[in-house]
Amino acid sequence: MVASRIIVTSKSGLQVFSAIFHTPVAPEEFHMDPTEFYLEWGKSIPAIPHHEIEITSPEDNFLRQHGLHIHASRKTGKPFICYPKRMETTSEALRVFRTWCLGSVATIVEEIDLNTIHSQECGGDAEKMERVLHERYGIFVATQVVSVQ
After folding, report:
1. Phi, psi of 135 (to 5 degrees)
2. CA-to-CA dists, residue 79 to 11, 53, 124, angstroms
3. What three-state secondary structure class fits 95?
4. DSSP state, 110?
5. How far apart are CA 58 and CA 41, in angstroms?
Protein backbone atom coordinates (compact mmCIF):
# COMPACT_ATOMS: atom_id res chain seq x y z
CA MET A 1 0.00 0.00 0.00
CA VAL A 2 1.17 3.53 -0.78
CA ALA A 3 0.58 6.47 1.56
CA SER A 4 1.51 10.13 1.29
CA ARG A 5 1.72 13.17 3.52
CA ILE A 6 1.76 16.70 2.12
CA ILE A 7 2.36 19.93 4.00
CA VAL A 8 1.06 23.02 2.22
CA THR A 9 2.18 26.51 3.21
CA SER A 10 0.00 29.61 2.88
CA LYS A 11 -0.34 33.04 4.48
CA SER A 12 -2.52 31.34 7.11
CA GLY A 13 0.19 28.85 8.08
CA LEU A 14 0.65 25.16 7.43
CA GLN A 15 -1.98 22.59 6.49
CA VAL A 16 -1.16 18.88 6.67
CA PHE A 17 -2.89 16.31 4.47
CA SER A 18 -2.43 12.53 4.58
CA ALA A 19 -3.80 9.88 2.25
CA ILE A 20 -3.81 6.19 1.48
CA PHE A 21 -3.83 5.08 -2.16
CA HIS A 22 -6.09 2.14 -2.94
CA THR A 23 -5.60 0.01 -6.07
CA PRO A 24 -8.73 -2.07 -6.61
CA VAL A 25 -8.34 -5.05 -8.93
CA ALA A 26 -11.93 -4.96 -10.22
CA PRO A 27 -14.73 -2.36 -10.40
CA GLU A 28 -16.59 -4.28 -7.67
CA GLU A 29 -13.76 -3.29 -5.31
CA PHE A 30 -13.99 0.44 -6.11
CA HIS A 31 -14.79 2.64 -3.14
CA MET A 32 -16.64 5.00 -5.48
CA ASP A 33 -19.70 3.48 -7.12
CA PRO A 34 -18.87 2.64 -10.77
CA THR A 35 -22.25 3.81 -12.08
CA GLU A 36 -23.31 6.55 -9.66
CA PHE A 37 -19.89 8.15 -9.36
CA TYR A 38 -17.57 7.29 -12.25
CA LEU A 39 -20.14 6.96 -15.03
CA GLU A 40 -22.17 9.98 -13.91
CA TRP A 41 -19.29 12.38 -13.21
CA GLY A 42 -16.44 11.00 -15.32
CA LYS A 43 -18.57 9.63 -18.18
CA SER A 44 -16.84 6.23 -18.04
CA ILE A 45 -15.86 3.52 -15.58
CA PRO A 46 -12.05 3.49 -15.18
CA ALA A 47 -10.16 0.52 -16.53
CA ILE A 48 -7.87 -1.44 -14.25
CA PRO A 49 -5.26 -0.52 -13.05
CA HIS A 50 -6.84 2.40 -11.25
CA HIS A 51 -6.19 4.23 -7.98
CA GLU A 52 -8.53 5.84 -5.46
CA ILE A 53 -7.29 8.26 -2.81
CA GLU A 54 -8.60 8.05 0.76
CA ILE A 55 -7.99 11.16 2.85
CA THR A 56 -6.89 10.18 6.36
CA SER A 57 -6.06 13.69 7.59
CA PRO A 58 -7.52 16.18 8.26
CA GLU A 59 -10.74 14.72 9.63
CA ASP A 60 -13.88 14.30 7.58
CA ASN A 61 -15.72 17.07 9.47
CA PHE A 62 -12.98 19.58 8.64
CA LEU A 63 -13.08 18.60 4.96
CA ARG A 64 -16.87 18.98 4.79
CA GLN A 65 -16.90 22.22 6.81
CA HIS A 66 -14.65 23.83 4.21
CA GLY A 67 -16.53 22.44 1.20
CA LEU A 68 -13.56 20.50 -0.13
CA HIS A 69 -13.95 18.13 -3.09
CA ILE A 70 -14.49 14.79 -1.37
CA HIS A 71 -16.83 11.85 -1.84
CA ALA A 72 -17.72 9.21 0.75
CA SER A 73 -16.69 5.62 0.11
CA ARG A 74 -19.67 3.40 -0.63
CA LYS A 75 -17.95 0.71 1.46
CA THR A 76 -16.65 2.54 4.51
CA GLY A 77 -18.12 6.06 4.38
CA LYS A 78 -14.58 7.46 4.67
CA PRO A 79 -13.65 10.54 2.60
CA PHE A 80 -12.01 10.07 -0.78
CA ILE A 81 -10.84 12.67 -3.25
CA CYS A 82 -13.63 13.44 -5.67
CA TYR A 83 -11.82 12.62 -8.91
CA PRO A 84 -13.95 10.68 -11.42
CA LYS A 85 -11.24 10.01 -14.01
CA ARG A 86 -8.84 7.11 -14.25
CA MET A 87 -5.60 7.29 -12.30
CA GLU A 88 -3.62 4.50 -13.92
CA THR A 89 -0.31 4.84 -12.08
CA THR A 90 0.78 5.63 -8.56
CA SER A 91 2.67 8.65 -9.93
CA GLU A 92 -0.52 9.94 -11.52
CA ALA A 93 -2.44 9.44 -8.25
CA LEU A 94 0.30 11.26 -6.31
CA ARG A 95 0.03 14.19 -8.75
CA VAL A 96 -3.77 14.29 -8.28
CA PHE A 97 -3.30 14.25 -4.49
CA ARG A 98 -0.78 17.11 -4.68
CA THR A 99 -3.10 19.17 -6.90
CA TRP A 100 -6.05 18.44 -4.61
CA CYS A 101 -4.07 19.53 -1.51
CA LEU A 102 -3.00 22.81 -3.12
CA GLY A 103 -6.52 23.46 -4.38
CA SER A 104 -7.97 22.64 -0.98
CA VAL A 105 -5.75 25.21 0.72
CA ALA A 106 -6.77 27.76 -1.95
CA THR A 107 -10.39 27.00 -1.05
CA ILE A 108 -9.79 27.26 2.71
CA VAL A 109 -7.60 30.39 2.66
CA GLU A 110 -8.66 32.31 -0.46
CA GLU A 111 -12.17 30.87 -1.02
CA ILE A 112 -11.17 29.82 -4.55
CA ASP A 113 -12.74 26.61 -5.85
CA LEU A 114 -10.22 23.98 -6.93
CA ASN A 115 -12.06 23.30 -10.20
CA THR A 116 -12.26 27.00 -11.05
CA ILE A 117 -8.53 27.59 -10.84
CA HIS A 118 -7.40 24.17 -12.12
CA SER A 119 -9.82 23.54 -14.95
CA GLN A 120 -10.87 27.00 -16.03
CA GLU A 121 -7.97 29.34 -15.34
CA CYS A 122 -5.15 26.83 -15.81
CA GLY A 123 -6.75 24.61 -18.47
CA GLY A 124 -6.28 21.44 -16.43
CA ASP A 125 -2.51 21.97 -16.22
CA ALA A 126 -1.49 20.98 -12.68
CA GLU A 127 1.99 22.49 -12.97
CA LYS A 128 0.57 25.81 -14.13
CA MET A 129 -1.91 25.77 -11.25
CA GLU A 130 0.93 25.15 -8.83
CA ARG A 131 2.85 28.16 -10.23
CA VAL A 132 -0.23 30.42 -10.14
CA LEU A 133 -1.04 29.51 -6.54
CA HIS A 134 2.56 30.08 -5.47
CA GLU A 135 3.08 33.36 -7.32
CA ARG A 136 -0.33 34.93 -6.72
CA TYR A 137 -1.31 33.61 -3.29
CA GLY A 138 1.87 32.25 -1.67
CA ILE A 139 0.40 28.74 -1.54
CA PHE A 140 2.91 25.96 -2.16
CA VAL A 141 3.89 22.43 -1.14
CA ALA A 142 6.54 22.63 1.57
CA THR A 143 6.98 18.86 1.91
CA GLN A 144 5.68 15.71 0.26
CA VAL A 145 6.54 12.34 1.73
CA VAL A 146 5.58 9.04 0.09
CA SER A 147 5.80 5.70 1.87
CA VAL A 148 5.25 2.19 0.58
CA GLN A 149 4.09 -0.45 3.04
Report:
1. -70, -40
2. 26, 9, 23
3. helix
4. I
5. 25
The reported pLDDT for the residue numbered 103 is 96
Q: Are strands 13-22 and 52-57 parallel, antiparallel or unpaired?
A: antiparallel
Task: Give residue limits of the domains in the chain.
Answer: 2-148
Q: Look at residue 50 in the predicted model and tell me its pLDDT.
A: 97
In the chain, % helix, strand, coil (3-state, to 5) comes to 40, 25, 35
In whole angstroms, what is the distance from residue 68 CA to residue 118 CA?
14
Tens digit of each residue's pLDDT (9 = 90 or more) over 66-125: 999 999 999 999 999 999 999 999 999 999 999 999 999 999 999 998 888 998 889 999
